[in-house]
Every structure is written in structure tokens, then in C-alpha cells.
Design brief:
Layout (H helix, E strand, L loop, with lengths): L1 H11 L11 H22 L3 H4 L2 H19 L12 H32 L2 H26 L7 H30 L2
Amino acid sequence: MITIFVGLIFVFFKTNLNFLDSGVTYYVTNLIGYLLIYLGMNDFGRGNQKLLKIRPYVVVMIAHSLIFLVLNSTGNSPLTIALSTPLGVMLALVGGALMVAGMFVVFVIISQILEHVLPKTDKALLENLVNIMMLLFILSGISTYFQNSIPLVATVVMVALFVVEILFLIRYYYVFRSQDERYI
């Protein structure tokens, strides 16, 4: 499970506090993170068939990260497409929607990992932290959209999201470490 933990660190890694990050580093760390999560699921999934059902989501996120990595490294991010033509507007909207959808899938993956791996007694706080992360993620998206009318709110929400992600990772580490100790 430590491989999944390290993968989550890479997925949560941000080089800035923008809601929509389109940098090459962001997608490299996402790609590494999802590959580690996939390897961790394969390793841990041998004893837990339910966990292997999450692999398709992870494979989609590996492909998602790889496609956006290639796009960003060639300067073709959905955030930088010229909006002067209807095709440009459509590509920017579809690309932006795919970026946001990819961010939501990480929460699906985490929720499924928690549901299929942890005993009920250990997962309550982690599930609450995932719910808070999801709420902050949605608020961050809304505040980013209205950033001109409410300046600085988006940054404050992204900082809060980052803090909750760190709390989640710390709790995740201790829960799985204690779970490993039970089986020794």
C-alpha cells in the first residue's frame, strides 16, 4: 500500500495554487502518480479482487495525464488555445471539461480504494477528508470562475485544499501503517 501512498503524493503535488494547472510538471507528476497507484493496486490487489476493479479508472487517468502531458509540452493546452474561431472555442471547452473531469476521477479512485480496502472503523476520518477535499475542489472551481469579482478567494480555497490533502495523506499513511502492523 506504500506504493499507492507515494502515487497519491505525486497526484496531489502542485507547483502552484491555480485551479487549472496546465504545466508540464503537473502532468509528469500525475503520470508518475497514477503509474505508482496502478502498480500498487496490482501488488495489493492479488489478495483483494475488489481493488482490481478500480484499475480501469487508473488506466484512464494514466492515458489522460499522458495526453495532456504531450499537449502541454507542445504548447497546446486547453488553457492556451486561441478562442478566435468556433473550433478553438469548442476545443478549449472540451479540453477544459476533460481537465476538470480528470480531477474528479482522482476522488473516485480514492473513494474506491477506501471502500474496498479499509475496515469501517478506520475509514471514517479518511472519507470525511475526501468529502472535504471534493467540496473545496468544487469551491475552488467556482471561485476561479468568479476570480475577477472576488479576488484572492480562489487562492485561499486552493491553500485550504492543499492543507486538507496533506492531512489526508498523513492519516492515510498512519491507517495503512497500523493495518500492516495488524497482519505482521
